[in-house]
């Protein structure tokens, strides 16, 4: 396993729609393991493949160091409610802003073996997943920021 280099804005790969993953092999497993190492190294709560220069629909989320969700070809099926809170991104070092998103989501995705599963998430986990799914469609959180936050407002904010 190894830590990959983070692609920071501006970069074309961060603003394009990623390709569907068709092959679920050992190489994909290695990539997911590297994404995990990279997310931990940079102290993030999520990471999308384009953030390490790979234009494929692969994202991982781990908001509390207990459960790592691996989402391949994820689709958000349902959303409800709203939440507004601070967001950051490993591709925008030092930049934080308030983003409003649905509070609760239902997602389907494939795991590293290609098996489809569904999961529900709410609150911060739902926020992190939506941030990563946006990455896979070339959508950056800066397009959704209602207000940028100053450093003193940032206590405890997470990077995705
Ligand atoms: Zn991000």
The third-level CATH topology is Peptide Deformylase
CATH superfamily: Peptide deformylase
The rounded distance between the terminal residues' Cα atoms is 20 Å
What molecules are bound to this protein?
zinc ion
Portion of residues within helices: 10-25%
In one word, what is the shape?
globular
Strand content is: 25-35%
Total number of β-strand segments? 8
List the secondary-structure elements in sequence, H or E.
HEEEEEEEHE
Structural class: alpha+beta
The CATH class is identified as Alpha Beta
Integer average pLDDT:
96
CATH architectural arrangement: Alpha-Beta Complex
**Number of structurally distinct domains:** 1
Strand order of the largest sheet: 1-2-3-6-7
How many distinct helices? 2
The low-confidence parts are none
Radius of gyration: 15 Å
Major beta sheet summary: 5 strands, antiparallel
Annotate the secondary structure layout.
Layout: H1 26-41, E1 46-48, E2 58-61, E3 69-80, E4 83-88, E5 96-101, E6 104-110, E7 116-122, H2 123-136, E8 145-148
Antiparallel strand pairs: 1-2, 2-3, 3-6, 4-5, 5-8, 6-7
Bound molecules: zinc ion (ZN).
Would you mind describing this structure in some detail?
One of its GO terms (molecular function) is metal ion binding. Its EC number is 3.5.1.88. Removes the formyl group from the N-terminal Met of newly synthesized proteins. Requires at least a dipeptide for an efficient rate of reaction. N-terminal L-methionine is a prerequisite for activity but the enzyme has broad specificity at other positions. Belongs to the polypeptide deformylase family. Its cofactor is Fe(2+). The chain is an alpha+beta fold and 160 residues long. It has one domain: Peptide Deformylase (Alpha-Beta Complex). Helix content is 19%, strand content 31%. The protein has two helices and eight strands; from the N terminus they run H-E-E-E-E-E-E-E-H-E. The strands form two sheets. The chain has a five-stranded antiparallel beta sheet with strand order 1-2-3-6-7, sandwiched between helices. It has a three-stranded antiparallel beta sheet with strand order 4-5-8. Strand 2 and strand 3 form a beta hairpin. It is globular and about 45 Å long. The protein starts with 25 loop residues before the first helix and ends in a 12-residue tail after the last strand. The mean pLDDT is 96. The protein binds zinc ion. Zinc ion (ZN) binds next to helix 2.
């Amino acid at each position: 396993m190894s830590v990959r280099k983070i692609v920071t804005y501006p970069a074309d790969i961060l603003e394009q729609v990623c390709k569907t993953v068709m092959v679920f092999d050992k190489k994909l497993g290695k990539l997911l393991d590297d994404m995990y190492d990279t997310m931990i190294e940079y102290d993030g709560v999520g990471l999308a493949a384009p953030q390490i220069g790979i234009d494929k629909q692969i994202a991982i989320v781990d908001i509390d160091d207990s459960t790592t969700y691996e989402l391949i070809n994820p689709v958000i099926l349902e959303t409800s409610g709203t939440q507004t809170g601070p967001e950051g991104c490993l591709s925008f070092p030092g930049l934080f802003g308030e983003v409003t998103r649905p509070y609760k989501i239902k997602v389907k995705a494939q795991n590293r073996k290609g098996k489809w599963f569904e999961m529900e998430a709410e609150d911060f986990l739902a926020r992190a997943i939506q941030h990563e799914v946006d990455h896979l469609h070339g959508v950056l959180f800066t397009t959704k920021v209602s207000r940028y936050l100053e450093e003193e407002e940032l206590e405890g904010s997470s990077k995705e």
